[in-house]
Amino acid sequence: MAEHLTTESRNPASLHIDQLSPLEIARLMNHEDRRVVEAVEAELPRIARGIEMMAEALGSGHRVLYVGAGTSGRLGILDAVEWYPTFGVGEEGVEVILAGGVEAFLKAVEEAEDDEADGAAQVAQRARPGDLVVGISASGSTPFVLGAVRQARAMGVATLGLTCNRPSALEELADWTIAPVVGPEVVAGSTRLKAGTAEKMVLNILSTGAMIRLGKVYQNLMVDFRPTNAKLRERALRILQEVTGASREACQEAFEASHQQVKVAIVMLRCGLDREAAEQRLEEAGGFVQRALEGRPG
Predict the structure, then answer these.
(1) N or C: which end of the chain has fewer CB within 10 A?
(2) pLDDT for 10-47, tens place per residue?
(3) Catalytic annotation on 38?
(4) 82 among known catalytic residues
């Protein structure tokens, strides 16, 4: 089947890449990377539905499970580990199932991607109805991912596919599929290149979009992050000063009184409320700062 996959085909533009100078190699790869943006743009309506699916799962108290092998699985990890420091969503909201286990993040375990039964077993153990299983496979034919998605469907768990080929076995299995077709790589089959870049771009949009839909962003500021280090605590104070116009001292006081919850501190400062009242206002507003400030229910 590999000979029919766009991601495994030879790229006519790079047939003589082995004879190019360093600058020519860089120019060629940079030129090819432009195709990634175009491919992702073509999938925006499908990505929008993916945002809705992710927000629906998280908003109902369920989880997102990224499933992948090799580069695709590692990209799932790169996205997931940023959820907590950026949006305050940790393991209760996202998990990554990587073929070969977490050790495969740093060391290739190539044969693991062929274990369809293991993919199914991992999902059977971790997924629950109401969750969203996101199968990530550049080829759209990785057995580990297909097994996971097939098992999720059998359990009544929603499934979203992310691939760089169309048509694909993954698209046939998943409830909804996003497929930015980036074309052949400059080194045939090296899907860590354009395909990996496209997958990362789509994951960025999916997770960020879902978090925005859940009220984790106010204006264009992150307001639900966990300030776990000095840099993030300083960011929290800057956000509070910018949004409320209050002095640094007042922001610092509200920040500490809010138990270092930026959202709560904003409502405290803007509405003149104590922590408990601000938390109640936010809860009634569904967690959205703008609605809380306007006194609108969620």
Answers:
(1) N
(2) 999 888 999 999 999 999 999 999 999 999 999 999 99
(3) no
(4) yes
